[in-house]
Amino acid sequence: MGRLRARSRAAGAGQGAMMAPAAPSVRRRRRPNFAVYVYPVVTVAVLFVVWELLARAGYFPRYILPAPTGIAARFVQFKGLIARELLVTMEETLVGFALSVVFGIPLAMALCASRTFNCAVYPLLIGSQVVPKVALAPLFLLWFGFGLTSKALIVFLVAFFPIVVDTIVGLSSTEPGKLYVARAAGATPLQLFWRVRLPNALPAIFGGMKVAITLAVVGAIVGDFIAAENGIGRLLLSANGNMDTELLFAAILALIAAGIVLFLLMEAVEKLALPWHISQRRDGSGAAP
After folding, report:
1. Who has the most CB within 10 Å: 18, 53, 70, 279?
2. What's this model's pTM, rounded to 2 decimal places?
3. What b/e readout covers 128-138, taking b as 16+ CB neighbours within 10 angstroms?
4. Chain centroid to CA 256: how far?
5. Which residues, given as ranges, of the chain have pLDDT below 50?
6. Options 3.30.980.40, 1.10.3720.10, 2.60.40.3230, 1.20.58.1190; which CATH number does 79-279 get?
7. Angle at 131 between CA 129 and CA 136, to 5 degrees
8. CA 174 from chain center: how many Å?
9. Rounded to whole angstroms, what are the CA distances from 219 to 114, 134, 149, 151?
10. By the 8 A CB rule, do 133 and 157 touch?
11. Which residues 6+ apart lie within 8 Å of 265 measured at CB?
């Protein structure tokens, strides 16, 4: 009897321990992953050092590949001009990108909502991307003049297609189980769209917008090349015509920096809008926290 009582007490103690609430786990505080920023900076610095050494050693003539120090000196000399022309190009880029978002996302929604509309319009969208933008740019200038409108429309034509395609992919990739549950709960078609389909498509939409913002810069340069009145493209043409390679590289590097800033700004907006998505809960290495 004594042994049975001892066993019952031990079993009771074991069950009590199992039923006792677990001690709250100490959540590790996420540390900022500086490697995401350090590695690219170090890589670029090494490339510039190697570039400088090769240029100083005389492997390349100055008019073909000038030294980074010469490019930096040229940038300081013409920083005001580069800044003014770059602001014009960024205005064209942002206006055209805004148009691509405003018209691209609703168009993708309409393409997903109606199969007939999809079959009628989607081939035309694909055809518009097959035609080289350089061939269409002179027509836009003829129709809309040499101002901001024609260049913004060229940017729009370049940037809207990734937004349309990625939005269609996102809206079409909603899991059927989520739709069944929402319908069983009595959700209307409008509620299905706003509460199920659209949130599920947001990561894909932002992916298309990040691609589009970089293509928008390319579209703005195409417009500047065709209508060489102002913009960083006009400065590139002028420097190329004068064989001023240092100014040419300075303008190109300024354009690259502006494109990277626009991409990072779009990523920041994505993080603010999608804090719940798994891609935003991971550190820069891709490992879960």
Report:
1. 70
2. 0.76
3. eeeeebeebbe
4. 14
5. 1-27, 283-289
6. 1.10.3720.10
7. 110
8. 22
9. 30, 9, 13, 8
10. yes
11. none
